[in-house]
């Protein structure tokens, strides 16, 4: 379990995160949802270890990790721009991290992951020859072969659309459940958060507005912000998210 207690972070005297406390259970998929400037990316970076909080603490499996270096936390991230190596083919990108940590994943495990993400036919392709969805799957595979204790995803679907977006969404859920992997996703898209997550953490101006299941958020929004940001945006998009979770359109 990941536990965040009373986290505070400010830049240039502007508070970005204001007394954030939350518990994320093992194997849970949680989306951090909010508009630009809500603090969601800063929270993700603090969990990863890229940024230190001004105050507050983080615990993983009851061990404090607030001051633990990023390399020692055992978490890993798929960045929004994929951060793949263009000079290497897909397979070498996937296995790049194993050069220095050869015993983390066996060849059989690597092969199973490649097949799970349907990348077998693309392994020899250079990155520039892959579609957006294929790049996302390669980036996901590269992270998963390192067997992270927590998987962090920064806007994983923002560059995708249509059928490809839905396919990657399902792949993320499949992988998370297959590996019983605690997964934290940053997104600005309510539909994405509500259809992919076990629970959704909604941030607004550095504060928690609501933390609950998609059904709870749809049927019992805890503030006018949640109602405006979630309900109205989904209504404008005219999707069936309300019906999916029992709410009214």
Q: What's the layout of helices and strands?
A:
Blueprint: E1 2-11, E2 14-24, E3 29-33, H1 40-48, E4 55-60, E5 63-64, H2 70-73, E6 75-78, H3 90-94, H4 107-116, H5 132-144, E7 150-154, H6 162-178, E8 182-187, H7 190-196, E9 199-204, E10 207-212, H8 214-219, H9 224-237, H10 241-244
Parallel strand pairs: 3-8, 3-9, 6-7, 7-8
Antiparallel strand pairs: 1-2, 1-4, 4-5, 9-10
Helix pairs in contact: 5-6
Overall average residue pLDDT: 91
Share in β-strands: 15-25%
- SS field, number of helical segments: 10
Beta strand count: 10
Write out the strand line-up for the largest beta sheet, numbering strands in chain order: 6-7-8-3-9-10
- What string, H for helix and E for strand, traces the elements in order? EEEHEEHEHHHEHEHEEHHH
Radius of gyration, in angstroms, nearest whole number: 18 Å
Net shape:
globular
Can you walk through the features of this model?
The chain is of the alpha/beta class. The protein contains 10 helices and 10 strands. A 6-stranded mixed β-sheet has the order 6-7-8-3-9-10, with helices on both faces. The protein is globular and about 50 Å long.
């Amino acid at each position: 379990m990941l536990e965040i207690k009373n986290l505070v972070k400010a830049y240039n005297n502007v508070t970005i995160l204001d007394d954030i406390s939350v518990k994320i259970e093992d194997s849970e998929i949680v989306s951090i949802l909010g508009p630009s400037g809500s603090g969601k990316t800063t929270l993700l970076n603090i969990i990863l270890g890229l940024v230190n909080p001004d105050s507050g603490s983080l615990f993983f499996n009851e061990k404090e990790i607030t001051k633990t270096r990023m390399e020692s936390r055992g978490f890993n991230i798929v960045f929004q721009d994929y951060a793949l190596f263009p000079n290497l083919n897909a397979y070498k990108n996937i296995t790049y991290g194993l050069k220095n940590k050869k015993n983390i994943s066996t060849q059989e495990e690597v092969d199973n992951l490649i097949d799970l993400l349907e990348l077998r036919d693309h392994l020899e392709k250079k990155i520039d020859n892959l579609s957006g969805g294929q790049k996302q799957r390669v980036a996901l595979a590269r992270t998963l072969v390192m067997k992270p204790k927590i998987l962090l995803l920064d806007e994983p679907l923002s560059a995708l659309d249509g059928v490809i977006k839905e396919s990657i969404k399902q792949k993320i859920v499949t992988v998370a459940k297959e590996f019983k992997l605690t997964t934290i996703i940053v997104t600005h898209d309510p539909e994405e958060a509500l259809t992919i997550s076990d629970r959704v953490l909604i941030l607004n101006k550095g504060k928690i507005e609501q933390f609950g299941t998609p059904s709870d958020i749809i049927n019992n929004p805890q503030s006018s912000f949640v109602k405006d940001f979630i309900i109205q945006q989904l209504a404008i998009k005219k999707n069936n998210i309300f019906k999916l979770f029992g709410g009214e359109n």
